[in-house]
Amino acid sequence: MATKTSKIKVQDLKLWYGDFQALHGLDLEVPEKKITAFIGPSGCGKSTFIKTLNRMNDLVENCRIEGKVELDGKDIYGSKTDINQLRKKVGMVFQQPNPFPKSIYDNIAYGPRTHGIKKKAELDEIVERSLKQAAIWDEVKDYLDRNALSISGGQQQRICIARALAVEPEVLLMDEPTSALDPISTAKIEELVSQLKQDYTIVMVTHNMQQASRVSDETAFFLNGHIIEHADTRKIFTNPDQEETENYISGRFG
Amino acid sequence: MGSKFLRGLVYLASAITFGMLGYVIFFILINGVRYLTPDLFAWKYNSSNVSMMPAIITTLYLVGGTLLIATPIGVFTGFYLVDYANRKNPIVKAISMATDTLAAVPSIVYGLFGFLFFVTFLGFQFSLLAGILTSVIMALPLIIRATEEALISTGRPIREASYALGAGKLRTIFTVVLPVAMPGILSGVILASGRVIGETAALLYTLGSSTNLPSSVFSSGRTLALHMYVLSSEGFHVNEAYATAVVLLLFVLILNGLSTLVSSRLSKGGK
Predict the structure, then answer these.
(1) B165/A54 CB distance under 8 A
(2) Lesser CB count within 10 Å: N end or C end of chain A?
(3) Which 3 state secondary structure label does DSSP give A75?
(4) Cβ contacts from A onto B, under 8 A
(5) In Å, how far are A69, A165, A181, A189 from A155, measured between CA atoms?
(6) CA–CA separation, B245 vs A148, rounded Å?
């Protein structure tokens, strides 16, 4: 196996919602330009954890975080971090497709406009490139001024992926991106994700174990706010070290 | 059997509602339209033509002035309550309760307050200014409430999407949340203007009831509703009061039509 460099390095991360501790001292390294999948039963902390990587948990009241999350060796919870720049670098796709109620074009152009790109030609170019990257250009190129809410859920989710790619992130976080979609849309998105790893570091939360085994390079198994096991996906699904992992992937709980 | 009975009740209830509304409109039109003479729209009021022209213009002044002050304050308060304040903070709860209470206070109380505070204490006399400020206090809770509800109903997902792209709070609010919330906010503003247009008790003590066109914010005047009230209570010009009611009705209809038009336009656009 090729040598890998870590894009994100998490050390002893603890997180509380009020008095409830949701994450208990997690350590994890996310390899660059690979797909890392988080699996585990509901409420195990995987979604909470993924949101600490672009500081979306800052929006949650009473949420307290301790520990270190380094992106390219810099602590994102340090006092010098510009949150908006961080979120530009670490993009996110959510569980429910959440396009803005604007035209498809304006959805994609929103991010670049936010970061100061105003020229029409440049925006046109970004919109086309992002939609192509998200494998939806051919389906929507003639309807760019149509409201993004008027297309199907699967297409909306790919619009959301294109929107995230338009700001040229380095990392893409995906929080159960296909759980609200039909099997065909899911397949399309899985294929898309596999292609995207050439250029992006991808972290994906999924409830669907087949999905994790199909698309990811590494898998981390979460349980009750702990990472039980983190290894090559093939190893996790064929020969896990921990009994809990074995139980989970063989469907004995969760 | 039971469902048929229920359906009957529903039909009956809606028939009563529409029937009453229809009857009121019909009654006003029958009694008012034939007294709509050119004289009633003369530029200057005198006791023989009882023109409502000054009242129409005063109404526009009053509603315009009220919205000019109350809309920004109300909308920003709504934004503060939803997007900035901590919902569990006791001060925020107090503000919410205060707005709800204000919305339920009878208008005569506002009138008395306006009279004591603006007219007497601040020395504005019976004036457009005193009338506008009093109406602002009445309009504010409606606008705040509507803004709050509209903002809450836009939901978390589109806000998260915007933040996740690296947009700040202001950009998120103005370019993503506001366009979505606009129709709701606007309907609150329309509701507020409706309340001000229909108001008499609060204005009688603050705006006064001068029949002249106000020449400045410090001169007294009367709105259409007030004009109608005075005409009918004096008893000499009941027919003209009905004619005034027709115009008032038209005002409200136009306002409603306009709001529907504007909100459908707004919810389409937004970059």
Answers:
(1) no
(2) N
(3) strand
(4) 67
(5) 33, 15, 10, 10
(6) 46
